[in-house]
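Work Package 4 report. The design task specified in the project plan requires that, given a folded chain encoded as structure tokens, an amino acid be chosen for each position. We show below one input record used in the internal validation round.
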């Protein structure tokens, strides 16, 4: 019902009652892309129909975007009940006939975007504003995001920016093949003029602000700069910074966390899972899915990560031993006042402390996200071990969350040569007092506007170091710090390791991990960085050597292109 509701609400805002002129798409025999009848988009209703058509195409790739990014990483493992198609993805053995390997679906989005951009009448104005102006920027972002997904999943892909209207032009060999850096560099230039373009507002759809359907251009530009690599890191940091600090629409981290409520470590307060579940809090962009197959395309991610009636409570994916170990290795810190001296001090659980649930050891985010219970079943065809993954309890698929932006901002700052500022994102949170206290004058001067935060909108009350979301008072942890190292490059690598760990702790299960590992490996020029992480996912103490050797060759990171 979401897309139908979008049309109803948006249609009420149209200035004319003209019927839509965009004809339905017909796929070519090669299925590479779609072609459409020659038709100008020159009425306000066309914007609504066109956006709905593109979002509908994005629904097709929503689940696989998450699954391809998660199952090939090191934080998730499949259960014995997982489908063979998912197992082939996770084991890097997927072939062209795997349903999750279908580049044509991405090109269907691109074709619709190309058609819109080529045919929208950008000069058309009604009542003093250009009818297609805002939607034009939305579609530019959709196209860039889709090409980025293609490149990070397939390595090198056919590239074209004009609509293909004839069967003879659908031959991939007619077009250049671009890798992720080439695609990033192209779209950095393509999107730069649209950073200040406002997006259309169609009100609330099923309780979700319709602006959540769009991709923030500054965030996407930051991502593209990170993927472009050397020479673009400061630019990436600037785009992320400007998104976070945009006047009138600032984005402090917020203070949602899961924490121990007492010094006995036997009771937790959990604001973390609810913040993730709330589509209007930390969520920036979703692909809106239907709630019923009768209405269209629904997401099956809940059936993969949760026990549901549809899967007889046999969930297919869960947290990996590598994630368990990383989480348990973290140090949780509480701050308390000494009853005698009244001075603040820290307390942390002893290494041999016995927890009610081992997922509570170390970082608490694992215990917040994954919950397992034993529920005896009357039928042997249904599992009695039932898992709930708090990150998948919605019809919609999240593709951007605020914490992704902060973590990538830290990644960009670090690679730009500002490791203290990057680490402050993890440990302290960036607001005026912390910036002056924990970042050297030399680095503050060099970073300049990259770490400029308004003292009125970013404060102690609304800003938190990302690590504190699961590890208590990370700012008070004397062991969580950058050691004295011999060179700036050593400091950058150390902080990047911490950022990589924080990405795992914060985004596990969300489909970001494998893509993050690709990008960090590219920064380092070291394929074994990714290979070692993934090869240790099932047993951190005993690396899977055959998988390590396979992934040490970056060609094996990508799906076969049909």
């Amino acid at each position: 019902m979401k897309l139908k509701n979008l049309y109803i609400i948006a249609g009420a805002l149209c200035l004319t009652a003209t019927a839509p002129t965009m004809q339905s798409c017909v796929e070519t025999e090669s299925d590479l892309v779609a072609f459409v009848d020659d038709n100008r988009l020159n009425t306000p209703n066309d914007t609504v129909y066109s956006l709905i058509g593109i979002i509908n195409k994005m629904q097709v790739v929503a689940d696989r975007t998450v699954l391809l990014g998660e199952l090939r990483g090191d934080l998730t493992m499949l259960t014995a009940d997982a489908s063979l198609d998912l197992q082939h993805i996770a084991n890097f053995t997927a072939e062209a006939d795997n349903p999750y390997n279908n580049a044509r679906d991405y090109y269907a989005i691109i074709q619709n975007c190309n058609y819109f951009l080529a045919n929208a009448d950008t000069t058309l104005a009604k009542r003093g504003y250009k009818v297609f102006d805002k939607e034009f920027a939305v579609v530019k972002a959709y196209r860039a995001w889709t090409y980025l997904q293609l490149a990070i999943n397939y390595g090198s892909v056919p590239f074209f920016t004009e609509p293909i209207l004839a069967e003879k032009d659908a031959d991939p060999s007619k077009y250049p093949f671009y890798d992720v850096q080439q695609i990033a560099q192209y779209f950095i230039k393509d999107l730069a003029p649209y950073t200040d373009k406002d997006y259309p507002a169609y009100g609330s759809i099923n309780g979700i602000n319709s602006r959540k359907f769009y991709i923030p251009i500054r965030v996407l530009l930051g991502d593209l700069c990170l993927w472009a690599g050397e020479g673009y890191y400061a630019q990436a940091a600037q785009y992320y910074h400007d998104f976070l600090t945009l006047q009138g629409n600032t984005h402090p981290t917020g203070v949602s966390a899961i924490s121990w409520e007492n010094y006995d470590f036997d009771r937790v307060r959990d604001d973390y899972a609810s913040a993730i579940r709330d589509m209007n809090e930390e969520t920036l962009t979703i692909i809106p899915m239907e709630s019923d197959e009768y209405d269209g395309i629904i997401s099956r991610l809940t059936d993969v990560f949760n026990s549901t009636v549809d899967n007889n409570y046999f969930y297919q994916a869960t947290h990996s031993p590598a994630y368990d170990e990383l989480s348990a290795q973290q140090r949780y810190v509480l701050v308390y006042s000494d009853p005698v001296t009244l001075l603040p001090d820290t307390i942390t659980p002893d290494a041999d402390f016995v927890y009610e649930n081992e997922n509570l050891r170390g970082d608490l985010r694992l215990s917040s996200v994954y919950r397992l219970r034993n529920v005896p079943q009357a039928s042997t065809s249904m599992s009695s071990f039932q898992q709930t993954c708090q990150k998948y309890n919605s019809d919609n698929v999240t593709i951007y969350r605020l914490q992704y932006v902060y973590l990538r901002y830290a990644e960009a700052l670090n690679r730009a040569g500002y490791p203290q500022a990057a680490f402050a994102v993890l440990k302290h949170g960036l607001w005026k007092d912390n910036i002056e206290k924990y970042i050297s004058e030399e680095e503050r001067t060099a970073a300049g506007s990259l770490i400029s935060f308004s003292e009125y909108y970013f404060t102690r009350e609304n800003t938190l170091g990302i690590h504190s979301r699961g590890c208590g008072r990370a700012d008070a942890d004397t062991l969580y710090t950058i050691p004295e190292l011999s060179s700036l490059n050593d400091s950058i690598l150390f902080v990047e390791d911490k950022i990589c760990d924080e990405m795992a702790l914060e985004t596990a299960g969300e489909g970001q991990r494998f893509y993050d590992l690709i990008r960090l490996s590219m920064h380092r020029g070291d394929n074994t960085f990714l290979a070692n992480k993934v090869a240790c996912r099932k047993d951190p103490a005993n690396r899977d050597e055959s998988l390590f050797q396979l992934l040490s060759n970056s060609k094996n990171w990508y799906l076969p292109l049909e």
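The chain has a mean pLDDT of 89. Validation will be extended to a larger panel in the next phase.
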